[in-house]
Amino acid sequence: MSARDWIEKDFYAELGVPPDASADEVKRSYRKLARELHPDANPGDTKAETRFKAVSEAYGVLSDGDKRKQYDEARRLFGGGGGGFRPGGNFEGFGNSTFDFSDMFANRGGAAAGGAGGGIGDILGGLFGKQRGAQAGGTRPQRGADVETEIRIDFVEAIRGATVPLRLSSPASCTTCHGSGARPGSTPKTCTTCSGAGVVTRSQGAFAFSEPCRDCRGSGRLIDDPCPECGGEGVSTQTRTLTVRIPGGVTDNQRIRLASQGEPGRRGAAAGDLYVRVHVTPHPVFGREGDDLTLVLPVTFPELTMGATLSVPTLDGRVSVKVAPGTASGRVLRVRGRGIAKRDGSSGDLLVTLQVTVPSRLDGPAEEALRNYAEVTADHDPRAELTRLLDEGQRG
């Protein structure tokens, strides 16, 4: 990305967020726009595809803390049009040349900028990819941007793990020119005007003034015969299918990193990473608490009162669980080893909550039996302990 891009593009406007937006606000806005503008959702819509690329570029800068800090600093220094600067980074009084601050402050440290570190020279060196004695950013390798996408899997797949195909439309190294930007059979040439530096520098007294090379537009290379697929960029939007291995035990909203599967790097640099955010569809029966599975099991009053052996479902079949006589409703029973497998080879447990079900209607014999039970247990007051505690509280 050129210095002019940093200064003139409003990445905050692209994502529809204010400059003081939090990282979460930036992420939410990007994910919303990416879903709306994704090429798969807008087949044949070139405007949506162009916006999708712009939104992805903006997110690539604003989601990276260091890049965002550098971008904000560049906008503060150059984008406001004040202090002798105009948008585009030109210094008034010196024509169309760009004042080379990285040369001026490269060795003056914090004293030049009133802070620690390399001061303003380091800031501009980081932004524009140029440090004293180094080539311009146009010819330096640039790591590819990270990419984020989303998938949805069901509850059992999340517990046991799964291999799922992922269809992804994103910038990728052009398959026609293999990233060179030149038509197959031809090779980019080093720009003779700037000797591959990407900038032309001239001295005037104690100052050095630099401007992007007009012949190569700051890239340091000349492509006489551009690739017809990518127009000389070396990168094109492509749809590819990846096979993603989802590890067992993944949680809802967890991100999985696929190294070097993001956007391709420029000029031989490494590719960025792909982050896959996993959404898990809830199960109609089972829940989850960490590495334990949870289950609410309906039981009858006689089963809790007299005790019983119950058949309990698990993800791997059914198991028998003994309920002791006099067990209260709401009691949680632990079935060990029937939860989620852990990395150390052990497994979590299945937590079974016993919940009494009350019949909505009783037939004649059942109702009569229940009335007889109520009569023979009339001396038992289930609320006696509650009454005692309330009385003690009032006396205290």
UniProtKB/TrEMBL annotation:
<feature type="domain" description="CR-type">
    <location>
        <begin position="161"/>
        <end position="239"/>
    </location>
</feature>
<keyword id="KW-0862">Zinc</keyword>
<feature type="repeat" description="CXXCXGXG motif">
    <location>
        <begin position="191"/>
        <end position="198"/>
    </location>
</feature>
<protein>
    <recommendedName>
        <fullName>Chaperone protein DnaJ</fullName>
    </recommendedName>
</protein>
<comment type="subunit">
    <text>Homodimer.</text>
</comment>
<dbReference type="GO" id="GO:0005524">
    <property type="term" value="F:ATP binding"/>
</dbReference>
<keyword id="KW-0479">Metal-binding</keyword>
<feature type="domain" description="J">
    <location>
        <begin position="10"/>
        <end position="75"/>
    </location>
</feature>
<keyword id="KW-0143">Chaperone</keyword>
<comment type="similarity">
    <text>Belongs to the DnaJ family.</text>
</comment>
<dbReference type="Pfam" id="PF01556">
    <property type="entry name" value="DnaJ_C"/>
</dbReference>
<feature type="binding site">
    <location>
        <position position="216"/>
    </location>
    <ligand>
        <name>Zn(2+) 2</name>
    </ligand>
</feature>
<feature type="binding site">
    <location>
        <position position="227"/>
    </location>
    <ligand>
        <name>Zn(2+) 1</name>
    </ligand>
</feature>
<dbReference type="InterPro" id="IPR001623">
    <property type="entry name" value="DnaJ_domain"/>
</dbReference>
<dbReference type="InterPro" id="IPR008971">
    <property type="entry name" value="HSP40/DnaJ_pept-bd"/>
</dbReference>
<dbReference type="InterPro" id="IPR002939">
    <property type="entry name" value="DnaJ_C"/>
</dbReference>
<keyword id="KW-0863">Zinc-finger</keyword>
<dbReference type="InterPro" id="IPR001305">
    <property type="entry name" value="HSP_DnaJ_Cys-rich_dom"/>
</dbReference>
<keyword id="KW-0346">Stress response</keyword>
<feature type="repeat" description="CXXCXGXG motif">
    <location>
        <begin position="227"/>
        <end position="234"/>
    </location>
</feature>
<keyword id="KW-0677">Repeat</keyword>
<feature type="binding site">
    <location>
        <position position="213"/>
    </location>
    <ligand>
        <name>Zn(2+) 2</name>
    </ligand>
</feature>
<dbReference type="GO" id="GO:0031072">
    <property type="term" value="F:heat shock protein binding"/>
</dbReference>
<feature type="binding site">
    <location>
        <position position="177"/>
    </location>
    <ligand>
        <name>Zn(2+) 1</name>
    </ligand>
</feature>
<feature type="repeat" description="CXXCXGXG motif">
    <location>
        <begin position="213"/>
        <end position="220"/>
    </location>
</feature>
<feature type="repeat" description="CXXCXGXG motif">
    <location>
        <begin position="174"/>
        <end position="181"/>
    </location>
</feature>
<dbReference type="Pfam" id="PF00226">
    <property type="entry name" value="DnaJ"/>
</dbReference>
<dbReference type="GO" id="GO:0051082">
    <property type="term" value="F:unfolded protein binding"/>
</dbReference>
<comment type="function">
    <text>Participates actively in the response to hyperosmotic and heat shock by preventing the aggregation of stress-denatured proteins and by disaggregating proteins, also in an autonomous, DnaK-independent fashion. Unfolded proteins bind initially to DnaJ; upon interaction with the DnaJ-bound protein, DnaK hydrolyzes its bound ATP, resulting in the formation of a stable complex. GrpE releases ADP from DnaK; ATP binding to DnaK triggers the release of the substrate protein, thus completing the reaction cycle.</text>
</comment>
<feature type="binding site">
    <location>
        <position position="194"/>
    </location>
    <ligand>
        <name>Zn(2+) 2</name>
    </ligand>
</feature>
<dbReference type="InterPro" id="IPR036869">
    <property type="entry name" value="J_dom_sf"/>
</dbReference>
<dbReference type="GO" id="GO:0008270">
    <property type="term" value="F:zinc ion binding"/>
</dbReference>
<dbReference type="GO" id="GO:0042026">
    <property type="term" value="P:protein refolding"/>
</dbReference>
<feature type="zinc finger region" description="CR-type">
    <location>
        <begin position="161"/>
        <end position="239"/>
    </location>
</feature>
<feature type="binding site">
    <location>
        <position position="174"/>
    </location>
    <ligand>
        <name>Zn(2+) 1</name>
    </ligand>
</feature>
<feature type="binding site">
    <location>
        <position position="191"/>
    </location>
    <ligand>
        <name>Zn(2+) 2</name>
    </ligand>
</feature>
<dbReference type="GO" id="GO:0006260">
    <property type="term" value="P:DNA replication"/>
</dbReference>
<dbReference type="InterPro" id="IPR012724">
    <property type="entry name" value="DnaJ"/>
</dbReference>
<keyword id="KW-0235">DNA replication</keyword>
<dbReference type="GO" id="GO:0009408">
    <property type="term" value="P:response to heat"/>
</dbReference>
<dbReference type="InterPro" id="IPR036410">
    <property type="entry name" value="HSP_DnaJ_Cys-rich_dom_sf"/>
</dbReference>
<dbReference type="Pfam" id="PF00684">
    <property type="entry name" value="DnaJ_CXXCXGXG"/>
</dbReference>
